[in-house]
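Fold this sequence, please.
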Amino acid sequence: MEIPKPSDSDKAYFRLLLNDLSDAEIKPMFGNLGAFVNGNMFAGLFGSTVGVRVDDADRLSLQAIEGSGPFGPAERPMSGYVGLPPSWHDDPEQAVTWVGKAFSFVASLPPKASKPKPPRK
């Protein structure tokens, strides 16, 4: 499985979509970026594709928009996530809206429990 790398402009676009979300934490993930709230990922960057995690009704609505699609590796897309249409790079207003929906949805979920550290030997 080959993991595409985002360009600097892809990373800047992703960060632009998160400008108004002060509680979001951006972390590197396998050469790409992920955006988290309460330890749960709500948006990610995979190559040049931005993907969001939204509730079932919003996921169906987003999947009906031309240009949206699976998010992640073609062999194993991430369930629960939808890739935003690439055409939104030119006018990010819609992408900002969907990233905001993803943030709100994931922020409503229970915080991710941290894994216990393994005992020292």
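The domain at 8-107 is CATH 3.30.1460.30 (Yope Regulator; Chain: A,). The two ends are 35 Å apart (CA to CA).
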